[in-house]
Specification:
Elements (H helix, E strand, L loop, with lengths): L4 H10 L6 H21 L30 H7 L3 E2 L2 E2 L10
Antiparallel strand pairs: 1-2
Length: 97
């Protein structure tokens, strides 16, 4: 992936970060390096990966199970702002983006 400084500045603006010219230059190199590493991970063959980790004593990991969350009211009561059974958060993106 070809990452440019303008891409870093765009993401920083969306995140509400003010980067100096030097910070943007440094972050461009660092993020490009991370993205290169992630791309390299895409070439790893995992078809023959062992499904158990050493800390499980050789047993396969437990399956994840989904279940309804019965304490929604408690969670919403702790929120700074909620309504209609949902958390309310401030808008962070501009209209049309």
């Amino acid at each position: 992936m070809n990452l440019e400084k303008k891409d870093v500045l765009h993401v920083a603006r969306l995140a509400g970060l003010a980067l100096t010219h030097e910070e943007a230059e440094r972050m461009t190199g660092e993020i490009a390096s991370i993205l290169g590493y992630v791309e390299a991970l895409g070439t790893v063959v995992v078809a023959e990966a062992v499904t158990a980790s050493p800390d499980t004593g050789g047993r396969p990991p437990a399956r994840d199970l989904s279940a309804p969350f019965s304490r929604v009211g408690e969670a919403l009561a702790l929120a700074p702002d909620s309504g209609g059974g949902f958390f309310r958060v401030p808008r962070i993106l501009e209209e049309g983006r």
